[in-house]
Amino acid sequence: MAQASAQPTPALANALPDARPAGSTRLRVWGLDIYDASLWVAPGFRADAWAQGRFALELHYLRSFDGEDIARRSLDEMRRQGPVSDAQAQAWLAAMRAAFPDVKKGDRITGVHEPGVGARFFHNGEPRPAVRDPVFAQRFFAIWLDARTSEPALREALLAPAR
């Protein structure tokens, strides 16, 4: 099981200055290690109301992926949460294509949830384009944190320490 670092990265500390580590885990698919995920939360964060909270999700990649593939897979997972119109899907896909670069083993992508505003992203500590759409942010982070996630064990490992 992945362990969260005791200290946030500088980019995370800047984006969420009062962050504390919550849960962490490793995503494995078909026996392949994909990434280590760590959830960082602000004071007052409640696991049962995660969509209203300030938090950051950091993914430390254990293999290389094209940014395009990350964006498309993210959209597929967002659609698991409920219907997404074609126009909305295209807008969100374009935003994710801009936000998510190609990653190689060892890279980190950090997403910061800003309730009522949207999401900010960082790649290896460098800012990436933000998505100023609170519906996008809720659906995006639901990939990991919503009860309908495709990875319930990952969700539990991330949220359990924040309960």
Descriptive account of the structure:
It contains 5 helices and 6 strands. Helix 2 (67-80) packs antiparallel against helix 3 (86-99) and helix 2 crosses helix 4 (134-145). The protein is of the alpha+beta class. A 6-stranded antiparallel beta sheet has the order 1-2-3-4-5-6. It has a single domain (10-162), classed as 3-Layer(bba) Sandwich (Chalcone isomerase), CATH 3.50.70.10. The two termini are 19 Å apart. The chain has helices spanning 10-15, 67-80, 86-99, 134-145, 152-159; strands spanning 20-29, 32-41, 55-61, 108-114, 118-123, 126-131. Strand 1 (20-29) and strand 2 form a beta hairpin.
List keywords for this structure.
alpha+beta, globular, six-stranded antiparallel beta sheet
Derived structural class: alpha+beta
CATH architecture: 3-Layer(bba) Sandwich
Amino-to-carboxy terminus distance: 19 Å
Radius of gyration: 14 Å
Spatial ordering of strands, largest sheet? 1-2-3-4-5-6
Major sheet attributes: 6 strands, antiparallel
| SS elements, strand count | 6
What's the rounded overall pLDDT mean? Answer: 93
| Domain module tally | 1
Q: Regarding CATH, which class?
A: Alpha Beta
**N-to-C SSE string, H for helix and E for strand:** HEEEHHEEEHH
Strand content: 25-35%
Count of helices?
Answer: 5
CATH topology: the name is: Chalcone isomerase
Principal-axis shape equals globular
